[in-house]
């Protein structure tokens, strides 16, 4: 399997972090949180995009193409996935799309390898991570054949959540082994950021 395209979901707000900018821009160990994600994800994909509800000049400095939501009134990560998959297909960028959130600075460096391997062995059009018995749909790999189902879910059924659409699409689940630093740790509030900075300063991150 060729490398997939990649998209970082960066449209969420940072209300629980005490700010009004995108959560992706919150400072983490001296740089925007999304920069940690970019550094870990970029080597795993053929090309990397940012998913935003609409264009924000604050993201221009990252040098990545921005995929704006195809529908107004942000409906969550499903809209970002649909918009990025549609762009990927229209520009013939890849057959598969690797999805990740902007607030996961410890995402595995072999995430694509493991998800792609499962996609090949299972012959399923979607592969998704499960960690500590919890499915993590924002860490997932989607084949272009899912476009019509996603389009209907977003435009016709006004869905916004990834778990909703997974119920109607055949998919394979990859159980990821537990690690000392949780690889799918999400930063949602100040205490999470403090914890993440402690791990980053302590070293031991692969």
State the shape: globular
Number of strands: 9
Strand content: 15-25%
CATH topology: Spore Coat Polysaccharide Biosynthesis Protein SpsA, Chain A
Could you give the order of the helices and strands? EEEHEEHEHEEHHEH
Radius of gyration: 16 Å
* Overall average pLDDT: 91
Helicity, as a percent range:
25-40%
Largest sheet, strands/sense/barrel: 7 strands, mixed
Terminal-residue CA separation: 25 Å
Which spans have pLDDT < 50 for at least 5 consecutive residues?
none
Strand and helix map with partners:
Layout: E1 5-9, E2 27-28, E3 31-32, H1 33-41, E4 48-52, E5 66-68, H2 77-90, E6 96-101, H3 111-122, E7 126-131, E8 134-143, H4 147-156, H5 162-166, E9 172-176, H6 190-202
Parallel strand pairs: 1-4, 1-6, 4-5, 7-9
Antiparallel strand pairs: 2-3, 6-8, 7-8
Helix pairs in contact: 2-4
Structure explained in plain terms:
- The protein has 206 residues and is α/β, with parallel strands linked by helices.
- The chain has a single domain, classed as Spore Coat Polysaccharide Biosynthesis Protein SpsA, Chain A (Alpha-Beta Complex), CATH 3.90.550.
- It is 31% helix and 21% strand.
- A seven-stranded mixed beta sheet has the order 5-4-1-6-8-7-9. Strands 2-3 form a two-stranded antiparallel ribbon.
- The two termini are 25 Å apart.
- The model has no long low-confidence stretch (mean pLDDT 91).
Descriptors:
globular; 9 strands; two-stranded antiparallel sheet; seven-stranded mixed β-sheet; 206 residues; 6 helices; Spore Coat Polysaccharide Biosynthesis Protein SpsA, Chain A
């Amino acid at each position: 399997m060729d490398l997939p395209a990649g998209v970082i979901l960066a449209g969420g707000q940072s209300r629980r972090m005490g700010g009004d900018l995108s959560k992706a821009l919150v400072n983490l160990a001296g740089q925007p949180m999304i920069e940690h994600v970019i550094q870990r994800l970029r080597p795993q994909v053929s090309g990397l995009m940012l998913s935003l509800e609409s264009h924000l000049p604050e993201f221009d400095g990252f040098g990545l193409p921005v995929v704006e939501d195809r529908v107004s009134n942000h409906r969550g990560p499903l809209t970002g996935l649909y918009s990025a998959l549609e762009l990927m297909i229209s520009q013939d960028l890849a057959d598969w799309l690797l999805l990740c959130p902007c607030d996961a600075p410890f995402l595995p460096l072999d995430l694509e390898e493991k998800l792609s391997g499962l996609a090949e062995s299972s012959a399923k059009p979607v592969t998704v991570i499960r960690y500590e018995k919890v499915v993590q749909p924002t860490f997932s790999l989607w084949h272009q054949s899912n476009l019509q189902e996603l389009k209907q879910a977003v435009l016709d059924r006004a869905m916004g959540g990834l778990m909703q659409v997974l119920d109607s699409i055949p998919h394979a689940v990859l159980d990821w082994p537990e690690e000392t630093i949780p690889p799918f740790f999400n930063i949602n509030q100040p205490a999470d950021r403090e914890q993440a900075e402690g791990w980053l300063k302590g070293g031991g991150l692969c």
